[in-house]
Each structure stands twice: as structure tokens, then as C-alpha cells.
Amino acid sequence: MALFLGFFTGPFGVDGAIRLTFLTAFNFTKGVYLAISEAIAFLIDSTRLTTYFSGGVNLSTQLLYGCFIFIPACFAVTKIANKFVD
Predict the structure, then answer these.
(1) CA–CA dist 84, 81 (Å, integer)
(2) Domain limits of the chain?
(3) pTM recorded for the entire structure
(4) Per residue in 5-23, pLDDT tens?
């Protein structure tokens, strides 16, 4: 499934819609649905970043420093969103 999602994410930008369709068919609870959805997104993004870096893409210093802010901010927003989902 992750390969299928990854294939359609790039050219069509419909990752969320396809993921929603597949995961809804399994009737998961909210927590399980969100955990699986985020795990799939993490795998896809990790693969994408690995491909970029192995292809020789270099980030500017500002973006590298930004990662120290962006990544913890994503976790913080996820915690906040979790309060609303519950």
C-alpha cells in the first residue's frame, strides 16, 4: 500500500485522499487510524528525503537550522491536535 501511495503522491498530489479511502475500509478507531496514517506519511517522507540527499541535493544553512525548529514544532502541533481528536 505504501508503494501505491508513494507512486500517486508525487504526480497527482492525492496522498491524503487515497490514504483516507484505504484506511476507512478497515474501520479503525480514531487513534489507530491516525497512528497508521502518520506512520505511512513518515515512511513516504523519509524515503523522499533520502532520495533527495542521495541525489546530491544540498540545503542552505538556514533550512538546516530550520529543521531544528520545524521538527519539534510538528511534534508539538501533533500533541495539540491529539487533544482535539480525543
Answers:
(1) 5
(2) 1-55, 58-86
(3) 0.60
(4) 556 666 666 667 777 777 8
- Cβ contacts of residue 54 below 8 Å, gap of 6+? none
DSSP state of 43: H
Classify residue 27 by its DSSP letter.
T
**HSE toward the beta carbon, residue 34, CA cutoff 13 A:** 11
Residues 6+ apart with CB under 8 A from 72: none
C-alpha cell of 83? 487533544
pLDDT tens digits, residue range 26-85? 888 888 888 888 888 788 778 888 888 888 888 788 888 887 888 888 888 878 887 877
